[in-house]
Design a protein that fits this description.
The protein is an alpha/beta fold. The protein contains eleven helices and 16 strands. The strands form four sheets. An eight-stranded mixed beta sheet has the order 1-2-4-3-5-16-6-15, sandwiched between helices. Strands 10-12-8-13 form a four-stranded antiparallel beta sheet. The mean pLDDT is about 95.
Length: about 375
């Protein structure tokens, strides 16, 4: 079963939607124009129910099959939000909003799911119900959690849920997936060391926070190197080092460092948090200073369900000829919240040889549209075959 002919026919139309979204990016929960456009399209397609305002600005469309003897309900999810990046693509449809850009391809995800919704509304060649989910604030806002907290899964009795992300560097229109832990938990930390500031020419009269914080930066790397089991993935990265003084001749009173922790295992996640606090407390005590550590848990590990992953891979192989095993990804994905509530799977579709996501020169590859749309449509038609 290759790419569906209908999506080849619709590719120009779907591409136009995608490029309009690209030109008008919106960040986090501020997807007001995007959400309105999605709702307008779903209404034009003839969806049986359209609900807006879930998870603040999320949109849900309900499409019923020709029959419903199975009682099955499948959710398909796309993210809608952009990133706070200044675009540098030079495209004629480049972002018109300074400092905002669709640098992760959510414009493509939204357009592809709209394309699938149009096709499913036209054909209804399935036995059951499909719920198309358009989510805001994937890029750090936790929009998926907010939609779940608003009761989305129970409201429509969603039993399985499927998501997709484009993947630069993967052959165009190909697919890759893996069962179990797939995308990492994404935590953040803020650490403030306080000592006794003073003149840099009299260090003996100070408690040097720059020395304290520098020791901590190095010591934190031992969590991955000497605390965690080497077979478990763990990243601890300090990404900012700020002092309370910018002078050349002042030892600062305070130093603030911050960074991120990425894990694929709940036990390792707990260990990392504990060790960060212990190491920083020990460093501060050693040098006679104090420390305040704030650890912020972000997105959980995204875990693909075994059975749904096997099914998703089978569908993908039918479209592209094969489906590869995806690598573990230390980036985060808030589809994790939906997979905590319902079994499902998340797949990667190849974007070809393009700039990486979150890069100012990235652009979603419109040639991936027929493959992505076909996968979503086939998930529905094969999981809930018409009676």
């Amino acid at each position: 079963m290759p790419v569906k002919n209908r999506f080849a026919e619709l590719q120009g139309e779907i591409t136009a939607w995608r490029r309009d979204l690209h030109e008008n990016p919106e960040i986090l929960f501020e997807t007001h124009r995007t959400s309105a456009l999605v709702a307008e399209k779903l209404e034009a397609f003839g969806c049986d129910e359209i609900v807006t305002g879930l998870g603040r600005t999320g949109v849900v469309g309900v499409i019923k099959g020709k029959s419903d003897t199975s009682g099955k309900v499948i959710g398909l999810r796309a993210d809608m939000d952009a990133l706070p990046i200044h675009e540098q693509t030079g495209l004629d449809y480049a972002s018109k909003t300074d400092g905002a850009m669709h640098a992760c391809g959510h414009d493509g995800h939204t357009a592809m799911l709209l394309g699938a919704a149009k096709y499913l509304s036209e054909t209804r060649n399935f036995d059951g119900t499909v719920v198309v989910i358009f989510q805001p604030a994937e890029e750090g806002g936790g929009g998926g959690k907010e939609m779940c907290d608003d009761g989305m899964m129970a409201r429509w009795n969603i039993q399985e849920v499927y998501g997709m992300h484009n993947w630069p560097g993967q052959p165009l229109g190909s697919f890759a997936i893996r069962p179990g832990p797939f995308f990492a938990a994404t935590d953040q930390f803020d650490i403030t060391f306080e000592g006794r500031g003073g003149h840099a020419a009299k260090p003996h009269e100070t408690i040097d926070t720059t020395v304290m914080a520098s020791q901590a930066v190095v010591a934190l790397q031992t969590i991955a190197a000497r605390t965690a089991d080497p077979v478990h993935q763990l990243v601890v990265s300090v990404t900012s080092f700020e002092t309370s003084s910018n002078a050349y001749n002042v030892i600062p009173q305070k130093v603030h460092i911050k960074g991120t922790v990425r894990t694929l295992d709940a036990e390792i996640r707990d260990i990392a948090e504990t060790r960060i606090k212990e190491i920083c407390a020990g460093v501060a005590a050693t040098f006679g200073g104090t420390v305040d550590v704030s650890y912020h848990r972000g997105y959980p590990v995204m875990v693909n369900s075994e059975a749904q992953t096997a099914f998703a891979a089978q569908v993908a192989a039918g479209i592209a000829g094969s489906c590869e095993e995806a690598p573990l990804v230390m980036g985060g994905e808030d589809f994790a919240y939906m997979l905590e509530e319902r079994p499902g799977a998340y797949i990667l579709v190849g974007n070809g040889d393009t700039a990486a996501v979150h890069h100012p020169e990235y652009n979603f590859n419109d040639e991936a549209i027929p493959a992505g749309c076909s996968w979503w449509a086939e998930i529905v038609e094969q999981r809930m075959p018409a009676s």
